[in-house]
Write a structure and sequence with these properties.
The structure holds two protein chains of two kinds.
Chain A: E1 25-34, E2 37-47, E3 52-56, H1 63-70, E4 78-83, E5 86-87, H2 93-96, E6 99-102, H3 114-122, H4 130-139, H5 153-165, E7 171-175, H6 183-200, E8 203-207, H7 211-217, E9 220-225, E10 228-234, H8 235-241, E11 242-247, H9 249-259, E12 262-268, E13 274-279, E14 290-292, H10 296-303
Chain B: H1 17-31, H2 43-50, H3 54-67, E1 70-71, E2 79-80, H4 90-110, H5 115-130
Helix pairs in contact in B: 1-3, 2-3
Classes of the chains: A alpha/beta, B mainly alpha.
Amino acid sequence: MNALPLQTGNGLALHAVTPQPATSVAVRGLTLSYAGKPVLDQLDWQLLPGQVVGLLGRNGVGKTTLLESLLGLRDVDGGEVQLFGQQLSALDDATRARVGFVPQQSQLFDWLTPRQLLSYFKSFYPKWNETKAEGLMSRWEIPQDQLISRLSGGQQQRLSIVRALAPEPDLLVLDEPVSSLDPVGRRDFLRELVEQVLDRGTTVVFSTHILSDLERVAFNVGFMARGKITLQAPLSDLMDGCRRIVGSTSRIDAYVRAHGLKVLSRRALDGGQIAVLATGEHGVLPEGLTGDRLGLEDLFAELTQ
Amino acid sequence: MAEPPAFVINPGSPEPIYRQLMEQLRRRVASGALAAGDEIPSVRELALSLAVNPMTVSKAFSLLEAEGLLERRRGLAMVVAAKHRRARSQAERTALLRPALTQAAEAARQLEVDADEAVDLFKTILQEVSR
């Protein structure tokens, strides 16, 4: 039997079941400016236990800033972050140990060997799955006794993943975790992630520009733009409900009104027409309008403008 | 026992992964490759082998259960429902092909590919996938 957290992961559609499920991550009004430019702007966000959320946004939109802020690695100008119901500023060691992080650039100790590094980190955690760590190290062919500075980028990234998984975290924050891995390495990592979710109901949030990976593993997707999470929903709901409608403004508006659709994005095209991303119960398109169902890549383009 | 063909998913398509899985299971039952009482892989097996979120697999299975294609047995693997005793007739199976072909025909029309060329391409692809 598997222990699937079927009650969670509904994202948008979650109607309060009593008692309200505790959040793994709760962010309220998070604000941060960088060189006078707002990066996070009153950002609100929630991750529920067992959710696997893919964080999507254009380059430079602040995904890394947001993920690092969840871990207290950035000084924010305002707002608050709670992990497992505790204020980030007052996190106790036990709660801190429940969080695993794989940064975009691995920040490992270059002068140690992988064996030394792992035994060093092991001492900080109440739980440390030695079998898992050893298994991954040998399966991923990471030389145990070579200086980390001598490892390839891919090996360093895999080591960073082992380090994050070994303490059996309840929350995994992954910032471009597979950028240096080849397709086989990526697939193997995704399986490892799926196993974590199956066995432990781990909450996972990760950013990646490899959308095919994200589509496989993320049940929910969150879109980041203009300093906010502009939309978060189960990806399958978005793909089922969204159509991109192209035509004249007046015709599209009439169609959207007639079917009570929700407009998620709207942009002008050449020749006076517009393209609208609308979600809901679509009907037969009237004369003069064309409509397409979109894959993740097109949804990304429409929703991260 | 011969290994059944693996499930294949195509990320990047406008078809969500759970629908791709549903469609593949429906086709297997329609062709008789899976018949009443046959066990299907567990959520765990399929999620791990495809590297797909377990909730996605579970969503596909639940919808197929609601559709009457699969049956859940307490503590055991799901099975193909009892009413699917025999493969469906050739005509019924061909009818199931219609939506996919309609979509392809629509694309051919938009790309202004002429009918003979489109049919030739379809024949080539048929040969490629049966290899």
